[in-house]
Design brief:
The chain has 306 residues and is α/β, with parallel strands linked by helices. It is 37% helix and 19% strand.
Amino acid sequence: MSRIAVVAGGSAAPGLGTLARAAAAAAAAAGAEAVAWTGGFGGAPRPLDPAGPDPDLAPAPFPDLLRPEGAVALAGRFRGAGVTGLVVAGGEGAAAGAAALARAGLPAVLVPATVQDDVRGTDACIGVDTLVNAVLRRIAGEAAAGGALLVDVPGALTGHAALLAAVGAAASGAILVERPFPWREWASLAGRGAGPVVLLRAEGAGTAAEAAARMAAALPGREVKVLPEPPADRLAAPSLFDRLLALRMGEAAAAALLGGAGGRMIAFRAGLCMPVLLEEVAGRRRQVPAELFEIAKKAGVLFEER
């Protein structure tokens, strides 16, 4: 009997439990078994009931995996536990880990699930919709008091999630990893109105202290409040979109493994979940779609010189 394991590769995201149960249900329907590998790549297997509660995958980093000998040793450990294939949930780091295990001979399929939103080749990552909704609720609650808000959003490698949230919040600007922020132009525009001023910052774009200082200089007399990025493991229950995406991707990942298609990522493209070659996306930085840049411009969100 085939036995697949579901593992979270380094970061938490809303919807991981739904993903794991969906993969287990698809495996059971095909006459196979699924287990939850808790504690990240260096963890241990636990029973996974498709109809039971969400498993606690408890992700954790495992740097040894990126060394060839480390990947071979870990692949052997999975095989020793009877695992014939691996569903890896996570972001850019998990993609590198899944690719390393695939090269070491263990079939692995990546499911993009990270609030960092840093996986190339997919229109959506599980957890990002929940994150953006949480950010919008925080902004709505704080903006009513007036003043100025600097809102930090996960995104060490890309400003995709920050720009999505900026559009949704009708923010004045978004500080992105991909573009130098036009502070002079923003300052000339932001101080004109009497209402609240909201600026979002991707995690990897400078520092919050620097951005807050520049906001304060541009808005004399206004208090600048910094909202730190919400921890992924403390976000609300998955949004409807993320729950449905997790169900579909979990099922597709199990089907790919049981069909012999390891070394793949389940991408969400044009409303469909489809397997793509993992080597085409692992180690490559996600790009903000040109369409989102255009939408942000039309929404009045400043992120680059105009």
